[in-house]
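Lab meeting minutes (informal)
Scribe: AK
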Amino acid sequence: MGAPPRRETDAMILTRRRAGLLAAASTLALPRPGLAQARPISLVVPYAPGGGTDITGRAFAQLFEPEIGQTVVVENRAGAAGHVGSVSVARARPDGQTLLFAVSTNVVVNPHLQKGDRIDLATALAPVAQVSSYQYVLVVHPDVPAKTLGELLAYIRSRPKGDLTYSSGGVGNANHLAGVLFSEAAKVEMEHVPYRGTAPALLDVVAGRVTMNFSSPPPAIPLVREGKLRAIAVTGDHRIAALPDVPTLEQAGLPGAVITGWHGVFAPAGVPAPVMERLEQAARRAADTAKFKDRLEHDGLEPAPAGVTRTAFAEAVKRESAFWAATIAALDIKLE
C-alpha cells in the first residue's frame, strides 16, 4: 500500500503563492513588444476638437499607433488658425516624438500671414507623409432661398454689400481662403466672420447666425445628411462619393474654380534620417489601410495620391507655399 497523500502545510502554501507572485512580477518586468518599448508619440492637431482636421487626425492616430509600435496621443493645441500648434511642434525636440497632423494651410499659407514671426515653418518643419486629399463643401443654412449655385449667386448680388456672411475657423484658415478664392472667382462680396475653429464656425451657420461656410467635408456631411445644412457645391474637379448629387463649382456654372487641400504629418526639422524614414513608412502604411480609406470616403475625403514619397511631398509643399505667397500679396489678405 502506497504512502498517504502529502498534505500541504500553511508554510508550503505561502511559499507556492510567493513563487507565483515572483514569476508574475518577472514577466511584467520583461520588455514588451510594440507599444511598451518607447514613450508615447504626441500627435498635435492645431485646432479645437470636433473640426475636420481633428476628426481625420484621430482616425489616423488609431491606425498609426500599431504601425509605429508606440502609443500615439492626440493633443489639440488651437489658436491663430492652427499657427499656435504648428509652431509648438516646430520648436519641439527633433527626436520624432512630437509630430504635427496638419492641414495644408497650416504650412503653406499661415507663415505668409504672420508678421514679425520669429520662426519660418517652411524650414522649421519637415514633411513626413501626405495622408489625404480633399475639397471643400459650400454649405448654407436651409432658410437661404437658394438650392443651386446660380440661385445663390443671384441672391448674394441682390443683397447690400456685407449683408451676407461666411464663417471660417480663423484668418488664414482653409475655409477662409476657400471663401476668398470663391468670392474672387464669382465676383461677389461677402463679409468674413472668423471663429476659433471650424466646428463653432459651422455651428453658427446651423444656428442661422451666418449665411454660409466652405467647410472641410467631415464636420459638414453629417449636418447635410440631417437636413441642418444644405450643400450647394463641392470645390474640387470631381464630385465626392459621400455627396454624389452635389455638383462641383465648375459643373454648377463657375469655370476654373478648383480649391483643394490635404492632410499631412510633419516633424520638427533636424529629426535624424533613419527616424524620419521609420515615421514615413509607418504613416504611409497607416494611410494605406482599408480602414483609413473607408473612413476617408465616409467623411468625404480621399486618399493621398499613390506613391507620393517624403521627398515628393516636400517639393509639393514648396510649390504650394510659393503660390500662396503670391496669392496673399495679390489679394491683400491680412490678419484681422
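Next up, CB showed the second protein from the same session:
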Amino acid sequence: MRKIKSVLNPEWIKILNYRTFWILTGLYAVTLILLLFSIQAILDNITLNVNNKSPLPVPDFPVYSFPGVWQNLTYIAGFLKMFPAFLVIILITNEFTFNTLKQQIITGSSRLDFMAGKISLIFLLSVSVALLVGLSGLVAGLIQNPSDYKDIISPKLWFIPAHALELLTFMMFAAFLAFLLKRAGITVIVFLLYSFIIERIVAFRLPDSIGRFLPVEASSNLVPLPNSSLMKLFGVSFSEYTSWQDAGICMAWVVIFTLLIYRILLKRDL
C-alpha cells in the first residue's frame, strides 16, 4: 500500500494545480451524467416520432429498469470513452513536452516507478468512471422504478467492472501511443485514425473469430448491444453477459501495452 502511495503521489502533485485536467475531467463527467439521465427521454422521443409515421408500432425501451439498466448505461457510456483516453494522452505527452519525466528520473525516481504511477492513475480513472456510471444507474433506476429494488443485485452488475476493463484497455492503448509518439497532436491523430478507420477496415477483412482479438474491438465487445422489444419482434437477440474470452483478451492487451511501454522507457534516451 505504501508503494502505491509513493508512485501515485508525484502524479497527484502534477495534476493538483493542472487546471486543464480538472476542466476537461469536469466537462466529461457532466456530459456523461447528462447523457445517462436523458437517454430515456431521447429514446422516448424517437419512438414517438417513429410511431407517428409508421403503421407498425415500435415498443418502448425501458432504459432504467433493473437489472437491464446496468447493461444499458454501460453500453451508452462506452461511446464517450474517447474523452478519458484524450486525458491520458495529454498527461503523458506533457511529460515529454515539459521535460518533467527527465526531472523526475534525475530526482531519484526509477522508470518503473514512473510507469507504475501513470498506470495506477489510469486504473483509478477507469474505476472512478465505472463507479460513476453505476451510481447513475442506481439513482435513475430507483427514481424511475422504485418498486424494482429487489432486482438491483443481479448477474448484470458485472457490466460495471466490465466497463472499467473496457476503459482500462482503451486508455492503455492511448498511453502506449503517447509514450511512443511523445507529442499530443500526432498521438491524437494516430489514435483517432486507428480507432475509427484502420482497425475497422482490418476487422472487416478478417474473420470475426480473429477480428475480436484487435484491441479496440475487444474493448467494445465487453458490453454488448442491449436487447430490446423491437429486436425481439424481428427475432434478433444480443448477448446479455460479458464473455470471459473477451475479458481475457482485454486483460492480455493491458499486459502487452504495459510491457511495450516499459520497453520504450528502458530503450529511449530521455
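CB comment: The two ends are 29 Å apart (CA to CA).
No objections, moving on.
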